[in-house]
Amino acid sequence: MAEQRLSELRVENFRSLRQITMPLGPVNVLVGPNGAGKTNVLKVFDFLADIVRTDLEPVLAARGGFDELVFRGGAERPGHLLIGIKGAWSTSLAGAPDEYVLKITNTPLAREEVFRSADVQHRLRTITVEGTRAKAQLRTVGEGEFESRSEWPPLGVDTADRKSDEVGIQPLSSGLSTLPRLAEKKFSMAPTLVADMLRAFRVFDVDVSKASLPSRVHRGGQEPIADNAANLAAFLLALRNSDEDAWSRLQADAVEALPQVESLDFEYPSGGAHSVVVVLRERGLREPTSLLDASYGTIRLLGLLAMLYDPAPPALTCVEEIDHGLHPQALELLVERVREASEKTQFIIATHSPALADRLKPEEIVICERGDDGSSLIPAISTVKVEEIVRASEGLPLGELWFSGVLGGDL
Predict the structure, then answer these.
(1) Are 191 and 237 part of one and the same domain?
(2) Measuring CA to CA, which residue among 189, 195, 51, 198 is closest to residue 126?
(3) Tens digits of per-residue pLDDT, 157-209?
(4) Do 97 and 177 fall within a single domain?
């Protein structure tokens, strides 16, 4: 299993996510109508990753400022937005989750952050970033005491017995982007751990127009698949050269999902092997078909398979409308490969497809609805309730139950 896992997402007042607490497992498939907030869940992680890569102030500015991000429903505009994640991204004790919470307030614009993690010496490290100062605090706790703490500690609560360090940072800089760069490594341990994980988060969306083009051959070994699959040909070529077994399995999957295809191959349009393009050897055709001439669904499927066979994926992969452009017969294969790939990367996936939902397990589906006030209800019903409904239906597929309205999240 992957060492880094998220177990919970908490959001307040971010776009349509007025107040949600969403448990997270290896595979999380968001199902619901347009406007239910599925995309906004993915945007939360994109927002956090951008903060790590740049800083809070430019990330807010690029999104139109606080007023463009905060929840628009209700009689009054909320005065804050909050994002919190729980999980395991350090060497913390079993049952002792790591935590990160970001709170942004308006009038005046300010931020507060809390990082918490525990090391193997049963020490809880809390770093609070508030105003223009960052304070690192450390205390020794008993294992039972730490494991019994299941609630989110409120921001601003001092959980430390002593102050171990303090440093000033810019008022609208983020601890995520600032603290990992400090020389005091002990001080910046918790921010560095969460920042490293967030920085690598991937929101994957195949850009068919770019994925079909020749890509420059990478000479330094296997490169990761790009977030938009623009380097699809180079990635697949490197996979074939570096992992014969993985290449054989990916090619077999492509042939199974695309019955007209007999095999995948490569051509070098510029000569000298400086760039490469994928070609399809298809049944009944004398010449191979360049990916430039392949169908939209074929290119998307190959891009998704490349992502699923990435040998070194990030801790979390988000995929918008994973079923878009795919034939229903490819979905069974796709779901199985997602489950296998979830040993290395956690998935949050958005879909409208009842055919894909039919192939899910109750613990994998997240029903999304929209309330009368415009807020997202995620999950609209618990996994326990989904399991009860499935049992009462005598095992009807989840997509059929969702499509019929039994599970909510109307189409």
Answers:
(1) no
(2) 189
(3) 444 444 456 667 777 788 888 878 765 555 556 788 888 888 888 999 999 99
(4) yes
Which residues 6+ apart lie within 8 Å of 346 measured at CB? 2, 5, 6, 24, 25, 26, 27, 28, 315, 316, 317
- Contacts of residue 287, defined as CB under 8 A and 6 or more positions apart, other chains included, come to none
Q: Does residue 50 sit in the same domain as residue 127?
A: yes
Do residues 348 and 20 touch, judged by C-beta distance below 8 A? no
Tell me the C-alpha distance between 267 and 326, whole Å. 25
- Cα 398 to its chain centre, rounded Å, is 23
The total number of structural domains in the chain stands at: 2
Q: Return the exposure string of 66-77: e unless at least 16 CB atoms fall within 10 Å of the residue's CB, then b.
A: beebbbbeeeee
Instruction: Report residue 387 as tokens.
Output: 């399991």
- Please tell me whether residues 189 and 210 are part of one structural domain: no
How many other CB atoms are there within 10 angstroms of residue 168's CB atom?
A: 9
Q: Which DSSP helix (H) or strand (E) runs through 277?
A: strand 275-282
Task: Tell me which residue of 216, 242, 233, 204 sits closest to 349, measured CA to CA.
Answer: 204
Tokens matching residue 243: 């992992």
Q: Is position 218 within any domain? A: yes
Containing structural domain, residue 155: 5-17+42-200
d(CA 273, CA 410): 51
Q: What is the pTM of this model?
A: 0.87
Torsion of Cα atoms, 335 then 203 then 34 then 332, to 10°: -10
CA angle at 108 for the pair 106 and 109, rounded to the nearest 5°: 55
